[in-house]
Design goal:
about 450 residues; alpha/beta; UDP-n-acetylglucosamine1-carboxyvinyl-transferase, Chain; 2 domains; four-stranded mixed β-sheet; about 30% helix; disordered C terminus; binds uridine-diphosphate-N-acetylglucosamine; binds phosphoenolpyruvate
């Protein structure tokens, strides 16, 4: 079993470039299935396990997908299968994002239910409610969801009970080929929604209002392939911001977009971190003394749940009591137990965690419980006495490209080793990119 070994204490310095966003590229790849003519070319694609998974789902459905040099070519102009079996969907929840495109193009989709995961039950009822409003018949049984429409979908007015990112994306992708106008109210406003809308519009769709709470879509007869460059990953950017803050470092995070990180920047500044835009990126300088704060996760533009565990690692270092309240997912505190192994003083109270700081963290053997928890444990390790060993790296590889190599490049004492203790230099996602640690 591979593990990452971090020895705390080094101040990080230098610059690092963030990748294209995982949560933007996954829906863009599924949207490329909507093109009945031409090829789509997607650039600045992160070489991640999740990207390999979604590519395999598309290939299973008969699309031609090539992935080289952070660029994906998709040709979906031939007839596609309208099914996605459990073997594929279980690896990654975002596979449900094939539902909207398949339903829009073929009036049919039969896809395994994604099920729950370590951060909560994560139902897809809002996606299905949207499809039904557009005229699809929905049947759920034997672990599958089957959608069937008579002819073309019909544009509809859809109000989302909560601004679900996935439901907004799926309904948007279904609506672009529907007859007439669709209005999605209380839609998610995340930058990844805007990125998807931009890609759809390049394909010939008519989507307006993405990034606001009302999205309007005028259905068109057909769509064609398009070229698209993926927006920078705001969660990877935020993770490096905390790496700098937690080590009292000074890092330039290139390609990071501060407009997408307002809530994170504002909280870090409150804690004493210095942050400013510089040369197409963000410079982050850690303070000598970190101050405590309270945070509540919320849909965008609120504080992102995907930054909750990393920020908690930083709060362990702050003077005073911090309270972190999670409102987006009902069970995203699994990492708290792992932090406690490192001597953290924290207590779960309902949907909040109370953190007493500062704690002199001690290196320990810990297991990643989900993707962002993996990053958070590494961050805590950067600030702990002695060695921290992090296992269950499959979670990390879903969403971070060579985090070990990048942190080592910034001066961290960190390495990834296999079961024989041999250094591992390449992402196990198995891409064409390898990052050398000197
Ligand atoms: C691939 C991707 O982009 N993943 C992101 C996406 O996940 P995802 O799209 O799954 O997250 P949602 O915004 O849909 O989920 C938010 C909340 O709504 C609930 N819900 C959602 C849909 C539904 O039909 N019914 C329902 O009750 C969920 O259980 C959760 O409590 O947004 C999350 C919230 O910012 C992020 O943490 C994930 O990293
Ligand atoms: C929860 C996440 O992703 P997913 O929705 O793919 O599980 C994440 O990116 O932190």
């Amino acid at each position: 079993m591979e593990q990452i070994i971090v020895k705390g204490g080094n101040r990080l310095r230098g610059s690092v470039r963030v990748e294209g966003a995982k949560n933007a590229v996954l829906p863009v790849i599924t949207a490329s299935m909507l093109a009945s003519e031409g090829q789509s070319v997607i650039t600045d694609v992160p070489v991640l396990a999740d990207v390999y998974t979604i590519n395999d789902v598309l290939r299973y459905m008969n699309a031609d997908v090539e992935f080289n040099d952070q660029t994906i070519h998709v040709d979906a102009s031939q007839e596609l299968l309208t099914e996605a079996p459990f073997e594929y969907v279980r690896k990654m929840r975002a596979s449900v994002l094939v539902l909207g495109p398949l339903l829009a193009r073929y009036g049919h989709a039969n896809v395994a239910m994604p099920g729950g995961c370590a951060i909560g039950s994560r139902p897809i009822d809002l996606h299905l409610k949207g499809f039904e409003a557009m005229g699809a018949h929905v049947e759920v049984g034997n672990g599958y969801v089957e959608l069937q429409a008579e002819g073309r979908l019909q544009g509809a007015k859809i109000y989302l009970d909560m601004p679900s990112v996935g439901a907004t994306e799926n309904i948007m992708m279904a609506a672009v080929l529907a007859k007439g106008k669709t209005v999605i109210e209380n839609s998610a406003k995340e930058p990844e929604i805007v990125d998807l809308a931009n890609f759809l519009n390049k394909m010939g769709a008519k989507v307006v209002g993405a990034g606001t709470e009302t999205i309007r879509i005028e259905g068109v007869e057909k769509l064609h392939g398009a070229e698209h460059n993926i927006i920078p990953d705001r969660v990877e950017s935020g993770t490096f911001m905390i790496a700098s803050a937690i080590t009292g470092g000074n890092i330039l995070i290139q390609n990071a977009e501060s407009d997408h990180l307002r809530s994170v920047i504002s909280k870090l500044e409150e804690m004493g971190v210095t942050i400013f835009d510089e040369d197409g990126g963000i410079r982050v300088i850690g303070p000598d003394k970190m101050l405590s704060t309270d945070i509540k996760t919320l849909p965008y533009p609120g504080f992102p749940t995907d930054m909750q565990s990393q920020m908690m690692a930083l709060m362990l270092n702050a003077y005073g009591t911090s309270v972190f309240t999670e409102t987006v997912f009902e069970n995203r505190f699994m990492h708290v137990e792992e932090f406690r192994r490192m001597n953290a003083k924290m207590k779960i109270e309902g949907r909040s965690v109370v953190i007493e700081g500062p704690t002199k963290l001690q290196g320990a053997k810990v297991a990643a419980t989900d993707l962002r928890a993996a990053a958070a444990l590494i961050l805590a390790g950067l600030n702990a006495e002695g060695h921290t060993r992090i296992t269950e790296l499959k979670h990390l590889d879903r969403g971070y490209v060579d985090l070990t190599g990048k942190l080592a490049g910034l001066g961290a004492d960190i390495e990834r080793v296999d079961e024989n203790g041999e250094k591992v230099y390449q992402q196990p996602a198995g891409g064409t990119v390898s990052y050398l640690i000197d």
